[in-house]
Amino acid sequence: MSLPGRHSLLWKLSGALALFCLLLVSLHVDIGRLLLQNTSYLSDSTKAVLGDYAHAAERAWREDGAEGVDGFLRALREREQVWAVVVDAELRSLSSQPLDGEARQRLDFVRALDFSVGRPGGTPAFSIPFSDDQARLIMELPQRLNPRRYNDIWEVLLQRVLPAVLAVLLGLLLYRVLIAPLAILRRQAVALSAGDLEARVGPG
Questions:
Q1: pLDDT band, very low/low/confident/very high, at 96 (cuts 50, 70, 90)
Q2: Which alpha helices (DSSP H) does the chain contain, by range?
């Protein structure tokens, strides 16, 4: 059995579907990469919030010592529901509670504010120095400040909504370019078979 000619409907449909698949894959990859790049670092407003927390911790330390740091950490944990410590330049706790083994292990993975937030789904901890750089606040990034907090929604849009929208657009395009002319031909054929000799294919 010979293949249809190159101008047949089969090849037009095959070409349209191939272009659709290429467009879908390209959009998913490019938008996904762009999304990851744009959510890999803290915004200036988030850095400012973390900086304000560090200033409050420094003020508590200077005014009330370890007791003040205890109060600050208690309030911070209640407000943001995150792990946090205040340490000196030698990574010794400035609160009344010394660092346990788990806390010391977590200190090996803290980031500066200009660093990437790390892998998707992780809970990074950032180090914010005091004004004299002799102590610092180290805290997990609150979820409300995480630049990737909406990435799950974006993934749904990219993987489900975008393909559905493009499929609808492709269907409309195929109907307009291929199916609609066939429907016109069918109406003209019906009209001619009914004896309407004035029937024409398209304007004329």
A1: very high
A2: 9-38, 44-80, 101-106, 151-156, 162-174, 180-193
Instruction: Record the tokens describing residue 190, joined without a space.
Output: 């019906």
CA proximity to 139, closest of 82, 93, 91, 90:
82
Length in residues, the chain: 204
Dist CA 194 CA 187 (whole Å)? 11
Cβ-contact 149, 39 below 8 angstroms = no
- 95 near 69, Cβ under 8 Å? yes
**How far from the centroid of its chain's Cα atoms is residue 153's Cα?**
7
**Residue owning tokens 């180090």:** 127
CA distances (Å), origin 111, targets 52, 61, 99, 191: 17, 22, 18, 76
CA dihedral 60, 65, 67, 73 (to 10 degrees): 40
Which residue carries 């609160």 as its tokens?
95
Q: Which residue has the tokens 């606040």?
A: 137
**Cα–Cα distance between 57 and 128 in angstroms, integer?**
10
pLDDT tens per residue, range 117-170: 987 777 899 999 999 989 999 999 999 998 888 777 877 877 788 788 878 887
**Pairing state of beta strands 135-140 and 125-129?**
antiparallel
Return d(Cα 37, Cα 154) in angstroms, integer: 14
- How far apart are alpha carbons 102 and 58 in whole angstroms? 24
Output the CA torsion sign for 34, 36, 37, 38: positive
